[in-house]
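Predict structure. Input: Methyltransferase FkbM domain-containing protein, 246 residues.
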Amino acid sequence: MGLIMAFCRRALKLVRLLFHSTFRTGLRYGVAASLENRPVMRSLQVRSVIDAGANVGQFALLMRHFHRDAVIHAFEPFPSSAAIFARLFAQDRCVHLHRHALGMAAVEADLHVSRRADSSSLLPISSSQTVFAPGTEEVGVLTVPVRRLDDVLSSADLPRPSLLKIDVQGGELDVLKGAEGLLPHLDYIYVEVSFAQFYQGQPLANEVIDHLQARGYCLTGIGGTAQDRQGLIVQADLLFSRLQNQ
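Output follows.
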């Protein structure tokens, strides 16, 4: 029954992707827009997007569908994923690809490469991750540049309202710590959080939530979630909005 349900979900997603020209373009490059984020993203009015952990462009493609003229700054350190992203958006002058990771300091760091590229992380992959998602074990290590977000972009690069999306496999808090100078200019933050530790040293959901609330953001939406084999939610995409008086 589980396999049948999974097949039906994939088939339904494919039908939805084929329905829109922007998504069909992505499929030509093997990129399926992240429709799981559609309910929480389509109501936002944004003029600029920072895509931290862009992978091959799944989220950027979704945002381009909703916001035709938005400026998108995408960050992806893994070479093969960045190459696909670059080809997909080669004709889009409002999309800027930065081929490095984001963190709290400008350094060269080890990227722990997963068998599934989108599970790669600057943190070592734990056994909990490979149990939760078989086929995501580490297959190599690659040295990549890491930069602070507020060293790369300024408020002048980000027409408002602005959105920062973070999906970096355990490094979410480091990205936020490297964006302190930009936070006053970011209206929304959409971040993947975990309730279980899948990467060694990974901050859990409560730490990310506390960090953002202390800086004038409130939780205003929940996007996609992931469950373990017992049906417990172990990951979620959370939308935070900056309070008006902050």
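Residues 2-18 form the longest helix (17 residues).
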